[in-house]
Amino acid sequence: MTSDTARWLVTGSAGMLGQDVLTVLKDAGIEATGLGRADLDITDAEAVLAAVTGHAVVVNCAAWTDVDGAETAEAAATAVNGTGVRNLAAACAATGARLLHVSTDYVLPGDATEPYAESAPTAPVNAYGRSKLVGEQAVLELLPESGYIVRTAWLYGEHGPNFVATMLKLAAQRDTLDVVDDQHGQPTWSSALAERLVALGLAEQAPAGVYHGTASGRTTWFGLAREAYRLSGLDPERIRPTTSAAFTRPAVRPAFSVLGHDRWSEAGLAPLADWRDQLAEAVRRPAFAGLVAVPGKD
Q: Whose CB has fewer CB within 10 Å in the chain, the N or C terminal residue?
């Protein structure tokens, strides 16, 4: 497979990550079809087979992402994150396409103290995580040699609502912000993840299975907010630490979402860069830089 002959399909292409994947593919000169939710219902098996036919690689960015909403609509979430993914995997098996499926740290229990290996036992703590695990199991079952599960976490980017954008917007509205400091993870820039997904799709000798697509290093939401402020020319002291107990949410959040990245070496690829380096590059982009006006800053 070469970049000028293989045709790719990106499902969920209207979302934050999907848009970035299409941009990376375009920059690489790879022909790609992008289908958003309005274009393709992945719970429709016949429609999925028709859409996948003619493509060599499928990148699935389509998902139910309302974590709290899944608590009262688990069947609906599983229809998309489980049955929909099974439909994609079955279509790829029928047509010979490779599948790159984006999953989540939420399939893990979140109670570790050291980074989770790709082989760590799964044990979701909420409905969203359970729905995503159903999708992972379908990929592993139906595409043992050509299915790739890329778990990501704490994703932010230019094309959709996300934590970094929210923090920067709130700088103009509040003098101080209380941010959770007892959840640990790896803030990951969607553009950087998109580049790694495309690289994995082009790496023909990469073994199938689970990969962890998160930034290197680790921090907390508090640490992320402070660094975003510092990089944007704002006073990081405006961010104050608090605990998860201060914010009641319908869905339990994992306390520890730090993932290990050993699998990338088997694919001949480096893991994603440190979260600070990713954030420094991201906040220079107009979509982030334009969110906050800093006196005296051009």
A: C
